[in-house]
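Hey team,

Filing this mostly as a record. A colleague (T.K.) asked me to run one chain through the structure pipeline before their review meeting, and I want the input and output archived in the tracker in case anyone asks later how it was produced. No errors, nothing strange. Just documentation.

Input sequence:
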Amino acid sequence: MDKTIPMIICLVLPFLGTTLGSSMVFFMKNKMHTKIKKILLGFAAGVMLAASIWSLLLPSMDMSKKQGVIEWLPAAIGFVLGMGFLLILDTIIPHLHSNGKKTEGLKSKFKKETMLLFAVTLHNIPEGMAVGVVLAGAITGNIGLSLAGAITLAIGLAIQNFPEGAIISMPLKTEGESKWKAFLDGVLSGIVEPIAAIITIFAVGLVTPILPYLLAFAAGAMIYVVVEELIPESMEGKHTNIATVGVALGFVLMMVLDITLG
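Output structure:
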């Protein structure tokens, strides 16, 4: 049986999920209601929290255990490095806070866009590598994996990536970006996934040992953005309970998707 078409499907599906999610920005009105913005920020935070746990940290520990390494060690190291990297990035990019008060304009918007986009992009890189590892194993037959299993993983990632594409493009639109620019930013955050998968297929022997660290690194980056950007903004002013509901909805949805289809 020709393995080319199943391989292409596995590579394209996760990226398609991100693209479709990002396209939701075209259904937005020019100005988003404050309550909708808050629930969206909360939803994004919930999705990223759950994805950090079930898509990144737990798989990192599972892989470490299979490699005969102390299962929590790579996860802890990678997580701290991810948090530290975003902290350094945060000091380079102009801050939202100045003398305890928020500053408005291009600098704060640039920081917020960059942090969110960068975190989700980082999250997609190790996911793409995971697809590459499974595909390489299915092709060679060395680790008992099948192409059907690889396709199942790709479908699960595609469904998971749909809300992730939305949480990139829609908040960017609320910050004043054009719909097309916000859409393209979301698409670019997902294009790294098939690229990482292809690179991993050709370098699986080199990538597999460090994949637990990369997964945890991405988790640390995502948690940093949630704590530093999404939660504080969602809790400003009135209707903070709506943002809390959004966190719960996003967290539960991503948890279910990760467990059932991941």
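Quick notes for T.K.: The CA atoms of residues 125 and 193 lie 5 Å apart. The longest strand covers residues 97-98.
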